[in-house]
Design a protein that fits this description.
It is a single chain. The chain is mostly helical. The chain has a single domain, classed as ABC transporter involved in vitamin B12 uptake, BtuC, CATH 1.10.3470. 73% of the residues lie in helices and 3% in strands. It has 11 helices and 2 strands; from the N terminus they run ααααββααααααα. Strands 1-2 form a two-stranded antiparallel ribbon. α2 crosses α3. The longest helix is centred in the first third of the chain and has 31 residues. It starts with a helix and ends in a 14-residue tail after the last helix.
Length: 309
Amino acid sequence: MAFFLETLFGGLMAGMLYSLVALGFVLIFKASGVFNFAQGAMVLFAALAMARFSEWIPKWLGTDSLLVANLLAFAVAAVLMFAVAWLIERLVLRHLVNQEGATLLMATLGITYFLDGAGQTIFGSDIYQINIGMPKDPIFVLENTFQGGILINKEDLIAAGIAAVLVLALTLFFQKTSTGRALRAVADDHQAAQSIGIPLNRIWVIVWCVAGVVALVAGMIWGSKLGVQFSLTTVALRALPVIILGGLTSVPGAIIGGLIIGVGEKLSEVYIGPMVGGGIEIWFAYVLALVFLLFRPQGLFGEKIIDRV
């Protein structure tokens, strides 16, 4: 039982990080109807910025304080992601309003390759480390309940907590603020939102800025765990099954989908992997997503689209 709970907790923590990446997709799709393939590139770009600025700032300021360096690096990287969001809206999206979905999709693919190249040109292409002071040592919990206790990684626990706080903040933002309600109105109908005075261009800038901050937090956490390298862009691919399960337009769906995928990957690898030769953790999420596409394509919390003729 202790081993099962240990695996379950590990899956839940990994699932929270998947949810964090999936949120970037959901936020932009809700506001613009665009499936943003550039989200993975945004995660890599933000992680590179965070890693390099946290390395450069202590040299510029002559300080050895890790906390000061990380806070300033996060602030500068956040401003940079705001600038990237503004440029994307100004130079790309503004000229593609009311275009076909395929056109917008191709635009995000172009943004992907541009950010990949620009990030490595500006910040370098080596493997960088992000040290935000998260403890790496595991801890044992519930030692009085289970013999030997349950092993939990402190870094995973803190990362899951950060992801949970950000998810909660975004949920409240969408539900309780006037800007959040405007974002939901734009998601429902662009032209109707414009007709009642909601500025579409400003809303797109806001949502891309929010998605940029989400990418920065995700990149910071994943970079701390895995190192900042080009393979971080593939983290976004792990989030695709999450949004298929949860629904493209649902913030709670991104959370639940991430938890399902995280737990499913860990449990399947431990309990089914030995029977099929291993490697199931790599493809389990995609097979599950395929099943959902066949039987419930809108996902668990997505809106069912009904075309009336």
